[in-house]
Amino acid sequence: MGAISIRNVVKRYGRGPKANQVIHGVSADIADGEFIVIVGPSGCGKSTLLRMVAGLEEISEGEISIGPRVVNDVEPADRDIAMVFQNYALYPHMTVYQNMAYGLKIARVPPEEIEARVQKAARILELGSLLQRTPRQLSGGQRQRVAMGRAIVRQPQAFLFDEPLSNLDAKLRAQTRLEIQKLHQELGVTSLFVTHDQVEAMTLAQRMIVMNAGRIEQIGTPEAVYSRPATTFVAGFIGSPPMNLLQGQADGSRFALEGVSLPLPSAAPRAGALILGVRPEHTELRPDGHWPLKVEMIEMLGAERLVYGRLGQVLFTVRLDATLPSPRLGETVRLEVTPEHLHWFDAGSGQRVVP
Ligand code: ADP
């Protein structure tokens, strides 16, 4: 029913020679009931893509289907989707109940059906005791829940979320994230969720679509995207602090960077110019480690310590458990990396090289 198919979609703003192309032919298949997060830096085209699914932007080329129906020329109101925005304009003079019921009333849903749907949404969102309040009498998080309630009562084929948590503080964001997960478990409605926040993407997504400059870099589960990033862009974008990406020359079991030649725990996939990726959390400090790191700066974050240093001339970050002894500034420590934690990328295209 609620599967979404995006086929070779292009978006241009404006017409003729001055047109600005912002989406360059993207394709993705979202299964019925799946929770998909579209993630990427600001300006990469996430909202534009979502708004094309919603019908709020025209599709310049390609095709979008919701369920069995191609919706390119279907009005937003007839697409059977519900959107939740960052700016959830509730009607200030209406109660929570009326805010949730309003769309259904306009759609001439019978009153008993409206009552049943609003009560069900209120139960799921724990808004039962707030139904007679006006938005002014609610906290930001509660208002966001009412906005979700308004989407739920419509019983759409798909929910589209456009950065709905951006206005909330950190604690409330984490809490609302859990509520959205619960909501999805309970209702199982196909969801497309847009965010620039990779932590939000990792925690919410069943699969994520990582975008960059109007193109899809990778589609996969959070585990797959983290453990096998398809490009250097994804490697640097997903994970915090980002993966170390070292430009160098491979030759068998050695990798030469500016100022140092590192022995490798397993042979490079090929000789010549490559980029070697190593996550800060995948290195160990050991007296018998094979890579010398000159420590330049240390940050204590409570549970962990970030050690910034140089391999030869090249900056490199290490994440250590804070219970381990801290290295000293200026000291050269020895790093060890295990073979399964090496990521290789083509130096020109940035694409992952499969060993
Ligand atoms: P994101 O949601 O990833 O931050 P957007 O989809 O909002 O990115 O924008 C993608 C690109 O399209 C940006 O370069 C933006 O400036 C451009 N853009 C968005 N809306 C319009 C518009 N109405 N007219 C012209 N350019 C636009």
What can be said about the biggest beta sheet?
Answer: 6 strands, mixed
CATH hierarchy, class of the largest domain: Alpha Beta
**Strand percent estimate:** 25-35%
Rough shape? elongated
Q: What topology, given as strand order, has the largest sheet?
A: 6-7-8-3-9-10
Say which molecules are bound, naming each kind only once.
Answer: adenosine-5'-diphosphate
Looking at the structure, the CATH topology of the largest domain is Rossmann fold
Rounded mean pLDDT score: 93
Low-confidence stretches: none
Describe the protein:
The chain has eight helices and 20 strands. With 355 residues, it is of the alpha+beta class. The chain folds into two domains: 4-233, P-loop containing nucleotide triphosphate hydrolases (Rossmann fold); 241-346, Nucleic acid-binding proteins (OB fold (Dihydrolipoamide Acetyltransferase, E2P)). The strands form four sheets. It has a six-stranded mixed beta sheet, with helices on both faces. Strand 1 and strand 2 form a beta hairpin. The model has no long low-confidence stretch (mean pLDDT 93). It binds adenosine-5'-diphosphate (ADP). Adenosine-5'-diphosphate binds next to strand 2 and helix 1.
